[in-house]
Amino acid sequence: MSELYGWSREVGEAWTDVAADFLGLSRPSAPPLAQTPRDEIALEGGARLYHFRGAARTSGKPLLLIPSLINRWYVLDLRPGASLVEALVGAGIDVWCLDWGVPEAEDRYLDWEAVLARLGRAVRRVKRETGAKQIAALGYCMGGTLTTIYTAQHADEIAALVTLAAPIDFQRGGQLRCMVEPAWFDADAIANAGNVVPHQMQAGFVALRPTLELGKWMSMPDLATDAKARESFLALDAWASDNIPFPAEAYRRYIREMYQANQLVDGGHRVAGRDVHLADIKCPTLVITASRDTICPPPAATALLDHVSTTDKEVLEVPGGHVGAVVGSKAAKDMYPALIRWLQPRLR
Fold first, then answer.
1. Is residue 48 within 8 Å of residue 41, measured between CB atoms?
2. Lowest mean pLDDT among 100-109, 118-127, 202-211
3. What DSSP designation does 254 have?
4. What is the pLDDT confidence band of residue 235, given thresholds at 50, 70 and 90?
5. Where are the domains of the chain?
6. Please, what sign has the CA dihedral across residues 163, 267, 291, 251?
7. Contact 247/47 with Cβ under 8 angstroms?
8. In this structure, what are the phi and psi dihedrals at residue 318, rounded to the nearest 5 degrees?
9. Cβ neighbours of residue 233 closer than 8 Å, sequence gap 6 or more
């Protein structure tokens, strides 16, 4: 499957060259990414904590963004006009973001507990830097799953929880859940070989829609004369090509205990010797889903609201797929304003 991914990319790039030559254009390159001004604080293991600068911030609790462990953080700040960070900062919110760092070969033993401990240190650092007793947290994709677990175990630290395309009930995980069925998928065999590298994970996503990559690149000639669409395409493709390894031990637990055993909603999950009970989440909770998400189907995400104890809970469904909901053309028009409207009174 990784060979198919590489082949389709080569064909698409060849089409791009042909179209550019025909139109007398230079071969397009990705625009600058992650442009919102920020300061950074080094954490352990190559991780970083970003604090985004804002011209005028309203008073209120800070917001910590937690991206997926296996994707680069800047999908949340992709480019001007398609940046969740830019929108939040523009609304006067004090925005922070955890960059998990890039695991090296020696990080293969970074386990689930260590990952959640790193998240905990980021939360405490934001509290210390801002003097806030509580913060709000927004987790995207697997970052939302991790943030939910952390909130359940540290409910007094989180003032509001937002999950964005984050799987909670993995039994409803769609095709990805079927692909890792224990009868034919051995997570131990993969993890025993070391970190799961990006092309291994990419092959699984390509298997969900085998012709998507080829179709994407075949569209490039049509973008040759549309500068705005071309810039959007190239920015997203640059991010999608910049994935990072999945630490082997964390991967082992994630597949076995989330996807295969569905421990999070079944109540059997434990971290650092403590049970994880979603009912311990009592803060306001917003679940954002994407209508065409095949990686995290909406029912897998909205299940969270069936288990939390808070009565202040809401679902926001936005059009698009797993990534398009964050950076697509309708994200800035629909999702960003709706999220800000929900957050502002709960941060005060």
1. yes
2. 202-211
3. I
4. confident
5. 33-177+273-347
6. positive
7. no
8. -120, 155
9. 216, 219, 220, 223
65, burial (CB in 10 Å: exposed 0-12, middle 13-18, buried 19+): buried
Strand partners, 69: none
Helix (H, G, I), strand (E, B) or coil at 91: coil
Q: What local confidence, expressed as pLDDT, does residue 329 receive?
A: 85
Identify the bridge partners of residue 289 per DSSP, sorted by sequence position.
317
Q: What is the pLDDT of residues 277-327, one digit of tens each?
A: 999 999 999 999 999 999 999 999 999 999 999 999 999 999 999 998 999
Name the DSSP letter for residue 323: T
Band the pLDDT of 15: cuts 50, 70, 90.
Answer: very low
- Alpha-helical runs (H) found in the chain: 2-23, 84-90, 112-130, 142-153, 174-179, 187-191, 198-208, 212-218, 220-223, 227-240, 248-253, 263-266, 298-302, 324-327, 336-347
Specify the CATH superfamily of domain 33-177+273-347: Alpha/Beta hydrolase fold, catalytic domain (3.40.50.1820)
pTM for this model (two decimals): 0.88
Q: Which residues pair with 95 in a beta bridge?
A: 63
